[in-house]
Amino acid sequence: MKLKKYVSTAGLTALLATSLLAGCSHPGESENSSKTVITLSGWGGNPVEKKLLEGVLDDFEKSHPNIDVKFNQISDQYMDVLKTRLIGGTAADVFYLDAFEAPGLIETGAIEPLDKYVTDDFDVDDFEKPMLDAFKDNGKIYGFPKDYSTLALFYNKKMFREAGIGGPPKTWEELERDAKKLTKGNKVYGLGVMPQIERLYYMAESEGGQVITNDRATFAEDRVSRALQPILDMHLKDKTAAQASEVGSGSGGEMFGQGRAAMVMEGNWNIPFMKDTFPQIEYGTAELPTVNGKKGTMSFTVGYAMNAESKHKKASWELIKYLTGKEGMKTWTSKGFALPTRKSVAEELGYDKDPLRGPLVKGAEYATVWQDGPMLPIVMNNFNNQFLSAYLGERPLKKALKDAQKQANKEIKVAE
């Protein structure tokens, strides 16, 4: 395997020691030889999500009495721990895989292609295409997406009424205009921004430029900087946009809930957050404003993948099939903490027509998935470091992107 290039030697030693101390068993190890025991690894969630997962796994075991599933929660440094266990041969049979990390892990050969397991009763066409494509490589499927979220525009209805604005902006030009009307000095900003490439990727490429080309950073080209300049202008010139830290908030959702931003671009996770933390705020959601006449948004998705070295691949597939099938996915997404990647399940749960979640679901078909090859992590780190300096007015955007691109490609060359 080529996994070693993704984990430092020091980190590898420490993580291996942690795994051994934790008594991690080999996938398939069973105290009851009459049943096949498989392990599922994932990260933790809130208590409701944990209960939902437990319910789905209980239902699976009832319908598959010869299979037991042991859930192994990796609470910290999920990908580092997972990669270390893959190297050491102690990784779970099935595991969560973020689309962002998928290309790099697929490249190592650590993930089992799933095409040969798919049967006619598993409707592949029912998945939202961008989310399914995120786990494909060279025509093969290496994972099936369990859930996702796009970004939508969250807007404060009371602030809009007070500013005489009839509804959410449909174009970027309308957003800039509305932001000016909604801004009240440094107390309330029209737009709350997260100046990070994972939120702005679709916008960076809105004029035809490419952030990455053939696994090389290419975001210093004029078309990319020109597409991103409006974000900086709203912050530095118009003073109508700010990031959460500038007003003492910990996130865009918190900035919105505290009334420090009239609009933010957030995902489905912000709906339960607002309900639990800021129930008094009257707000709505809408699809993100068009840029250059085109719809766009980001999508973040996680899938289930199979360990290529699993000793129980048939049972592992049965688990993946159930978890990403209509029944399992309906249960998992029934409380609205995540959106179902199957269109039929979204319709059955009514999310496509839901006043708050509807715009998020609509964005799925045209979303840019947060994934662009194995070198994206390197590109992200360098872009974000330099773009923030430009956003804060410390240096020109073109200069910042040029320096970031140079450093990113230097690191990519070393990583190859």
From TrEMBL:
It comes from the Bacteria. SUPFAM superfamilies: Periplasmic binding protein-like II (SSF53850). Residues 1-22 form the signal peptide. The keyword Signal applies. One of its GO terms (cellular component) is ATP-binding cassette (ABC) transporter complex, substrate-binding subunit-containing. GO terms for molecular function: maltose binding. CDD domains: PBP2_UgpB. GO terms for biological process: maltodextrin transmembrane transport; maltose transport. Keywords: Signal, Transport. InterPro entries: SBP. Belongs to the bacterial solute-binding protein 1 family. This is Carbohydrate ABC transporter substrate-binding protein, CUT1 family (TC 3.A.1.1.-). It comes from Fictibacillus solisalsi.
